Amino acid sequence: MKIVVSDFVEGAQTAEGVVVIIDVFRAFSVACYCLAQAPQQIIAVGAIEQALELKSARPETLLIGEREGKKLPGFDFGNSPTELASEALQGKYIAHTTHAGTQGLVNAKKAKMVLTGALVNAKATAEYIRSLRPEVVTLVRMGWKAEENTEEDDVCAQYLKSLLLGEPCVPEDIKSQLLASPCAARFLDPEQPWNPESDLHLCLDIDRFDFPVEAITRQDGTVELRRVT
Ligand SMILES: O=C(O)[C@H](CS(=O)(=O)O)OP(=O)(O)O
């Protein structure tokens, strides 16, 4: 198995084979917390307007999204697992747009298969990929605003790589490293209430979920997120 690591939207655009679009803080942690509650449908989109169009077409659609980390005007929720983990989402329709994570999903057009990447379901994702025996796996780190590498996405890529290669790795060490890292600072800053500390802990609950998440491109270019069973 050849494992390639790349970055940002450009990395997603050229990514081949089984592609994992990684966004630990917070898009694909949020996606897992939502999917754990069995919503009817989650659609990931790049543009804010597309999310609003989905709501116009189906007014009961819940809108989740951020730019610069902050909840968007007119949206129901920010990109915050804290907000979503306590919501009753069973049977709901959801549209999700974020600054980095969902931009990667909608641009992974060369991929044979696209999966989301987060620490909360990394082991399940790696086990699933191993079962597929792919020739090429591309790990795309979306980072901060899809333009700057971040430690949490780098560490997640490394963790996935170790799991794929069957190398030893200790989730507790990853968690301690990230809790002490500058990447945790925005969740500990009282002047950034849109980044609550509880999000940090929910995103670092490593391997909490036992399902991978597949991103399936629809005809209109939006992407449906589904639990792989
Ligand atoms: O909501 C977040 O924490 C981030 C902010 S940014 O894109 O890195 O500016 O969004 P995400 O797309 O989940 O990385």
UniProtKB/TrEMBL annotation:
Keywords for the protein's UniProt record, in alphabetical order: Hydrolase, Magnesium
What this protein catalyses is: (2R)-O-phospho-3-sulfolactate + H2O = (2R)-3-sulfolactate + phosphate
Extract the InterPro entries matched here: ComB-like (IPR005238), ComB-like_sf (IPR036702)
Decide whether keyword Cell division is in the record.
no
In terms of superkingdom, the source organism counts as Bacteria
**Could you say which cofactors this protein requires?**
Mg(2+)
Give the EC number(s) listed in the UniProt record.
Answer: 3.1.3.71
Q: What SUPFAM superfamilies does the annotation carry?
A: ComB-like
Looking at its record, which EC class is this enzyme?
hydrolase
Q: Which GO terms fall under molecular function for this chain's record?
A: 2-phosphosulfolactate phosphatase activity; magnesium ion binding; sulfopyruvate decarboxylase activity
Q: Which PANTHER family match?
A: 2-PHOSPHOSULFOLACTATE PHOSPHATASE-RELATED
Which protein family is it in?
Answer: Belongs to the ComB family.
Protein name as catalogued:
Probable 2-phosphosulfolactate phosphatase
Q: Which organism is it from?
A: Marisediminitalea aggregata
